[in-house]
Amino acid sequence: MTHSNRFFHRTRRFAIMVTIVAIALIPATSQLKAQSLRLSINDAQRYAVEHNKAMINANLDTVTAELNKWKAWASMLPQVRFGFDYQNMCGYSMSMGGFNIPMNPNGTLSLTASVALTGAQVVNVMMQNIAEQMTDITRQQTEQSTRSNVKNTYVSILVMEQTAGLLDSSLANLERLYATSQASVDVGAAEQVDADKLKVQVATLRNSISSTRRTLQMLRNSMLLQLGADVNSQLELTTDINEILNVNNAAKLVLQPFDINNNYSYKLLQQNEKLSEKQVTMAWMDYLPTLSAYYQYSEKKYFGDEGMNMTPPNMIGASLAIPIFQSGSRMANVRSAKIAHQEVLNSKQQAEDGLRVQYNQLCYDLTTALESYEIQRENLDVTQRVFANITEKYKYGRASSLEVTNASTDIISAQSNYIQAVMNVIAAQVSLEDLLGL
Fold it and tell me: Of the four, 101, 297, 359, 419, which is 20 to 30 A from 174 by CA?
């Protein structure tokens, strides 16, 4: 290989390598752009609707339903087929009345247009329209579920961040008290056991903070997964917890009447009822005749001497097939479809009753959660003030280390109860909103 050829091949390999690296860097560049997400609650919900994998699949299902509807329509439209046939008898000639007729090679060009129409095809189009509507309702239901999950996780993160801040503040106070207590022990003004109690409480509070931080990181990872964002993205939430946790708006939900027709699950049941009705109609279609028609154009060409051409250039035809007797199978299909339709009606009625009972239960749950939230919020405020008061007294020797320990334990318990109360309110509110179709 010459020097110029070697240079050419090395250059080509280098170009290929650069191209591969550039292609590999494209997703990396996109990833870098997605590493910083600063989202309000509304932004987060919109982002999830656009990027969440379940939502993407739901949108694809909608496209598939549209294609299935078009396929149903296409089955009733004329079908056109073009064909070319070539025959070569390898020199064979046909003897007829003392004459030899050569069977020369020939080719036939054909164009066929046909159409067939049955009652089942018409009903199938109607069923595909219903299926498309069901797919769209499912997509809306998936969107609602995605928004609800994002809201729950968003609030969980905000509450955990708030809790971590409160625990950090309590830890700072305890550490100062421990340092003061240990200094008093060192000069003989206090007993070591008092300082040791505070030391254990500081360790307990630090462990609680670490657990909160781990839970917070888990929630952030869950949020990124729900958003459909890169798992290495940095997430910053900008909406304040008080803007989301609107007690007055939550209380108004209980007063809102329940229109079952707005519920997505019930909408699916309604469409399923229509679908089962069409299944009954589809079973009856087996009694109707099948009508078909076609047109064919053919042109035969001999490659050599012209031979006998018995192929007509134009041909039309039509047929009507009427079913007469199938040993009762068609009537059995009709009865089976009717039974299935009745089962759908029964399931729909049962689901309707269940949704109304669920509405009453969710209203009760939300009312209870709001009452508990008010109690736990006040309890947290009181516990924080008690802790601040006792720590202040401890500085001047008017409170024991046991009182400080108990106050610290109480504030951790109060914060845990407050978190649970907030989450109960959000969960009950979201569940009721989903049921109402909001």
Answer: 419
